[in-house]
TrEMBL record:
Disordered as annotated region, ranges: 1-28, 538-565
Record's compositionally biased regions (Polar residues): 1-10
Entries under Pfam families matching the protein: ResB
Gene Ontology annotations of biological process type: cytochrome complex assembly
Protein name (Swiss-Prot/TrEMBL): Cytochrome c biogenesis protein ResB
Boundaries of every ResB-like domain copy: 52-531
InterPro entries the record matches: Cyt_c_bgen_Ccs1/CcsB/ResB, ResB-like_domain
Gene Ontology CC terms, in alphabetical order: membrane
Length: 565
């Protein structure tokens, strides 16, 4: 090998040492796995899995895999919508079942991507963190032999002593928050370590997000409860109207609290094109934490939930609950309660049922059960020609009632409280043999035939509020991880890690030659600009000396725009 080749190799090695460890990214090794054996294959697979390229690919796959979970009905979110989808797409549904698209987030393929991404990030972060700690404990590498080969370079001659120049350079660089030290005939400095800190914080934040997402899915709970004014709720599984939870959730994880709904108030636009549009929904509660907690008043509004520990109580719906009284043929009250009815439209046109199961006897003294279908409008208008509410507030309430008697079928198993099973029921008939029905205003009654009793629409109409009680234990960690990821990514993108070297040696003519060079992790205009700024400040402390044969007293600093040709 020629001397020239040897010199070039030495220079390349020198420059490589100067630019080493500007990043904590591991070196890519593309060694072929052929002939490695089992250990070699495992090592090769681990290196591929923990590479940044594979981590980004897994993150992309995870994002793509989450798309079906947003577009296709999920069993854990709404099982009824899944059944409707199966009925409407009998050919496509079995394919979705095989692919696990009805339960994406708990499917095998999504879990595999999730776990591989988690392992990849952990395997990537640990060595990078260890390497970065080593860089912090060490010092910036010494100056290369030929600073002219670096991207940003400047030089000048000065009559100041080399030691004085190096001391001034060291003080200047430390003042500019560089980590600097004297290394032989030069000063080595480095800045921008927060770039790697941001990079590591970003990766750690991704792990926090993954853990928070997993814990949120495994330990979450989500239930709904309809509460009528004057009634209350206790956070226990039997009390919920509907409840679903993660696979590792247990009833002991429920936050202990209770509340009473004292009053519900809603206001609506009274005129204009937005007439009837809700303006405010407010539920006034008194709640207590734990079994013996002190009661406290609060108001829950839309998007302003009540927060108790890890639980949040959201106000999600509202409607009306007319007070209904049912009497038997002897005038005995066998039923009296506020009956919540389900809204059908934006003006709270509602329907529901009343079921009388106990203590009722018909006109012959026989035990029997009664069922009433009800249709309610808070604001009735005869001019509309329809039994539909014209406004959501209680301006002119009207209740339509149909009556049935027989066996409600409640002994056969659980029933929907808002539906009436007429399989073993008979309709009451009026004098003309038609279905007995009547429109009732507050205070009106419908008398049942043959001494069967009566049903009364009382003047008191209560309101009900629907609450959603959610527990997501990983919510705070997820928010913290997301914020940390944003700040870490911003730091890794906008902070430039760079190195500066200042060499001062005495020339053959006894005049000190000052050389300054800079190197960044990537090509950036900030490195030459910063080097020019530093050179100008150092030049003020070590002014230029005239070149040989030049009568001028000073020699200007060479602009730091690039390497010397």
């Amino acid at each position: 090998m020629s001397k020239t080749d040897t010199g070039n190799s030495a220079e390349q090695e020198d420059l490589g040492a100067a630019g080493s460890q500007l990043s904590t990214a591991p070196r890519e090794e593309q060694a072929a796995p052929a002939g490695f054996g089992v250990v070699g294959w495992v090592r090769w697979f681990w290196r591929q899995l923990t590479s940044m390229r594979v981590a980004l690919l897994l993150l992309l796959l995870l994002s793509l895999g989450a798309i079906p979970g947003s577009l296709i009905p999920q069993t854990g979110a709404d099982a009824s919508k899944v059944e409707d989808f199966r009925a409407a797409h009998r050919t496509l549904a079995p394919v979705y079942d095989e692919l696990g698209l009805f339960h994406v987030y708990s499917s095998v393929w999504f879990s595999a991507i999730y776990i591989l991404l988690f392992v990849s990030l952990v395997g990537c972060i640990i060595p990078r963190t260890w390497q970065f700690v080593g860089q912090l404990r060490g010092r910036p590498p010494g100056a290369p032999r030929r600073l002219t080969r670096l991207p940003a370079y400047t030089t000048w001659r000065t009559e100041a002593d080399p030691e004085q120049v190096r001391e001034a350079a060291l003080a200047l660089l430390k003042k500019r928050r560089f980590r600097a030290h004297a290394a032989g005939d030069a000063v080595a400095a480095e800045k921008g370590y927060l770039r790697e800190v941001g990079n590591l914080v970003f990766h750690v934040a991704l792990i926090v997000l993954l853990v928070a997402f997993a814990s949120g899915q495994l330990y979450k709970s989500d239930g709904t409860k309809l509460v009528v004014e004057g009634d209350g709720f206790s956070n226990a599984l039997p009390i919920y109207d509907d409840f679903k939870s993660g696979s590792l959730f247990s009833s002991d994880d429920l936050v202990p609290f209770s509340f009473d709904l004292k009053d519900f108030r809603a206001t609506y636009e009274t005129s204009g094109p937005n007439r009837g549009t809700p303006r405010t929904f407010e539920a006034r509660l008194r709640y207590s934490e734990g079994a013996y907690g002190k009661e406290r008043p609060t108001t829950v509004k839309v998007n302003e939930p009540l927060k108790i520990g890890d639980a949040k109580v959201y106000l999600v719906s509202h409607g009306y609950a007319p007070v209904i009284t049912v009497r038997d043929g002897k005038g005995k009250v066998v039923y009296r309660d506020a009956v919540p009815l389900l809204p059908l439209d934006g003006n709270v046109t509602s329907n529901g049922v009343v079921k009388v199961m106990d203590d009722y006897r018909n006109g012959k003294g026989e035990k029997e059960q009664l069922g009433f279908q009800t249709f309610f409008v808070p604001t009735f208008s005869a001019r509309s020609g329809t039994m539909l509410s014209q406004y959501p507030a209680l301006l002119n309430p009207l209740l339509a009632v149909n009556a049935y008697h027989g066996d409600l079928g409640v002994d056969a198993g659980p029933q929907n409280v808002y539906q009436l099973d007429k399989t073993h029921m008979k309709a009451f008939k009026d004098a003309k043999g038609q279905l007995l029905k009547k429109l009732l205003q507050p205070g009106d009654s419908l008398k049942l035939p043959n001494g069967a009793g009566s049903i009364t629409f009382e003047k008191d109409v209560k309101e009900w509020a629907g609450f959603e009680i959610v527990q997501e234990p990983g919510g705070g960690w997820a928010l913290g991880g997301a914020l940390a990821a944003i700040f870490g990514l911003a730091a890794s993108l906008f902070i430039q890690r760079r190195r500066v070297w200042v060499r001062a040696v005495r020339g053959a003519d006894g005049v000190t030659v000052v050389e300054m060079a800079g190197l960044g992790r990537s090509e950036s205009a900030k490195v030459p600009e910063e080097l020019g700024d530093l050179a100008g400040l150092l030049y003020d402390q070590a002014p230029g000396a005239p070149d040989p044969g030049d009568d001028s007293s000073e020699s200007p600093v060479v602009p730091a725009e690039g390497a010397e040709k």
